[in-house]
Design goal:
CATH class of the largest domain: Alpha Beta
Number of strands: 9
Number of helices: 7
Shape: globular
Distance between the termini: 41 Å
Number of domains: 2
Radius of gyration: 16 Å
CATH superfamily of the largest domain: Vaccinia Virus protein VP39
CATH topology of the largest domain: Rossmann fold
Length: 209
């Protein structure tokens, strides 16, 4: 296991994310994960949600072997081979024929963790628009990560994190929850849930009407 790319944060938050999914999701369906990263979440969540067919994706081609390896490591046979996907693209997927074949069928849920703050705002808009296109009516979009909330005291750790992100790229930074929810509504998605998560993170839930 140590030879595979490993994210300590992904390992720490996997159980809390699973518990939210067990509360809001039905017992089974087709899940699309956007920005799967190392693949730890796909492996863990897929193994613990056996009724779900899990499709991991990544914008970075070099991450695909790691995602597949994590699924094999835990024996998550319901996790499909990872595919390329850029959330900001106006059409999903742009250049992956394997995933394109599956995109003829709508997904029951879409999950994305820790993307919005380390990508341009166009990726957030693309994620919301893509969810509106590819979810079944009543399907859910779950977005995990840090957010700023108007009227609530902001943890100093999030302020410091935001400053470090913007120092790396002016297009990065922690998003305002209200801005994400407003953009979701413009895309045709309804905000339906907010869950407080460990380490000053949130899980936001949106539904396609």
């Amino acid at each position: 296991m140590n030879e595979l790319p490993f994210s300590p944060a992904a390992d720490r938050n996997k159980q809390a994310i699973l518990e939210v999914m067990q509360r809001v999701l039905p017992s089974g369906g087709r899940m699309l994960e956007v920005a799967s990263g190392t693949g730890q979440h796909a492996a863990w969540l897929g193994a613990n949600l056996p009724g779900w067919e899990w499709q991991p994706t990544e914008v970075n081609r070099t991450a695909l072997p790691s995602i597949a390896a994590w699924a094999r490591q835990v024996g998550a046979t319901n996790v499909k081979p990872p595919c390329l996907l850029n959330a900001a693209d106006p059409h999903w997927p742009a250049d992956d024929e394997t995933l394109a074949n599956d995109f003829g069928l709508p997904f029951d849920a879409i999950y994305c963790a820790n993307l919005l703050h380390i990508a341009p705002w166009s990726a957030s808009l693309g994620l919301l628009a893509g969810a509106a296109r590819h979810l079944k009516p009543g399907g859910l979009l779950l977005i995990y990560g840090p957010f700023f909330e108007e009227g609530d005291a902001t943890a100093q750790s999030n302020l410091d994190f935001d400053a470090s992100l913007r120092a790396q790229s002016p297009q990065w930074g922690i998003r305002q929850r209200s801005a994400v929810e407003a953009a979701a509504q413009l895309a045709g998605m309804e905000p339906t849930g907010r869950f407080t998560m460990p380490a000053n993170n949130l899980m936001l839930v949106f539904k396609r009407p």
